[in-house]
Amino acid sequence: MTDFTTGLDRLAIETPSWAYGNSGTRFKVFAQHGVPRDPFEKVADAAQVNAFTGAAPTVALHIPWDRVEDYGKLAAHARDLGVTLGAINANVFQDDDYMLGSVTNPDPRVRRKATDHLLECVDIMDATGSRDLKLWFSDGTNYPGQDDIRTRQDRLAEALSEVYARLGDDQRILLEYKLFEPAFYTMDVPDWGTSFLHCVALGPKATVCVDTGHHAPGTNIEFIVAMLLRAGRLGAFDFNSRFYADDDLMVGAADPFQLFRIMYEVIRGGGLEPATGVAFMLDQCHNIEPKIQGQIRSVMNAQEATAKALLVDADALAAAQSTGDVLAANAALMDAYNTDVRPMIADWRTAKGLDGDPIAAYKASGYFEKIVAERVGGTQAGWGA
Ligand code: RM4
Ligand code: MN
C-alpha cells in the first residue's frame, strides 16, 4: 500500500474547463461575475486551483466549447501558469443532426460527421500533447422499438475502431458510460460492462471512465472500481457528487463515505501507482456556487477521502480478514474514515510552501476581485455555449 505522503503527492486532479464557465440546469443557466470569456481565461482560473491546492496540475478541454486557432499557444499559456492541458472531451451531443444519435445514428451521413469530430479531437490532442480522448455519447433511444439495439452497438463499435486506429502510441480512449439521460429507454453506453466490452474489443489503449454520478441509485461504485483495476481497464474518473441522478455537485458533497470507499479500492488496486495511469478528473457544473472556490473545495474533498483511505491499517485489515473477524475488519476501515485528516493535509500543504487553508488563501489573494474588474464585455463562456 502507498504511504500517506507519497499517496497525497501522487493524487493529481484534473479540473474541467467547463466548470469555470456559466452553468445551471435545464431550467436556467445563471450568469456569474468574472466568468471566463475564452479558453485562455478558463485555463487561468484552473491554474488558480492548482496554485492554492498544489494538486490540480492539468485542465481538461471540451471541443468545440474550447476551440482555439492555435492549440500550441493555449498549451504554452497553460505551462506559463504552471499547469498543462489534459484530456480532450469530444462533444457529439449539441448539434441538431444528433437528435437520434451521433455515432449510432441511423443515418450514415450523421455517423460520418460524428466520427470526423472524434478524429479532429485526436488532431487536437496531437497539438496539445494530451494523452486522453474522453468519449461520452448522449446516444440512445426513448422508446422500445425506436431503433435496433444490436445494430446501434455495431455502429458504435465501427466508429470506435476507426478512432482507435488513429490514436498515437501514447494516446488513449476513455469511454464513459451513463445509465440514462438524455435518452430514457436505452443509452448506447449505459454501464461499465458495455464500456468494458467495447474497450476489450478495441485493445489496450481503450479504458473505462467512471463518472461517479452516472449510476443507478445504490450502485456499489467501489466494486466497479475494484473490477476495472483488476482487469487493467480503469482509465479515469469523472468525479462529482449526486443525491438523485446526474447532479454534478461538488465532489464528496453528497456522500464522502462513498468517496472514501472508492479511494480505498483505488489504492488497494494500485490506482495511485504512476504506471497504472488512472486519471482523476472532476466533472462538475457549478450551478449556484462560485466557480473557482467550488473546484478548490472539490479538490480538498478528494484529498480528504484519499488521505483517510491512505490511513487504513493494511496489516490489521488483512489479519482481521484472514481470521474472519468481521467486526475488526470493518473497524479497520471505519477507524481510518473517522480520522480528522484536515490537520495532516494542512501540514502536507505547508511542507510544500502552500497555505494550509486553500479557500482562505484564495479569498485573500484578490484574484476574484481582479477577474470581476477585468472581465468586462465580451461573451461569457457558458454551459452549452
Ligand atoms: C455528460 C458527461 C460528460 C460531460 C458532459 C458535458 O453528462 O458527464 O463527461 O462531458 O456531460
Ligand atoms: Mn462525466
Folded structure, characterized:
The chain is of the alpha/beta class and 385 residues long. The protein is built from 14 helices and twelve strands. The strands form three sheets. Strands 1-4-5-6-8-10-11-12 form an eight-stranded parallel beta barrel, surrounded by six helices. A two-stranded antiparallel sheet has the order 2-3. Helix 2 packs across helix 9. The longest helix has 21 residues. The radius of gyration is 21 Å and the shape is globular. It starts with a helix and ends in an 11-residue tail after the last helix. The mean pLDDT is 97. The site of manganese (II) ion has 5 residues, from loops.
In short:
The protein is α/β, with parallel strands linked by helices and 385 residues long. The chain is built from 14 helices and twelve strands.
CA radius of gyration is 21 Å
Overall spatial form:
globular
Task: Tell me the structural class.
Answer: alpha/beta
Strand order in the sheet with the most strands: 1-4-5-6-8-10-11-12
Tell me the number of strands: 12
Give the biggest sheet: 8 strands, parallel, barrel
Task: Please tell me the overall pLDDT.
Answer: 97
- The SSE string, one letter per element, is HEEEHEHEHEEHEEHEHEHEHHHHHH
Distance between the termini: 44 Å
Tell me the β content: 5-15%
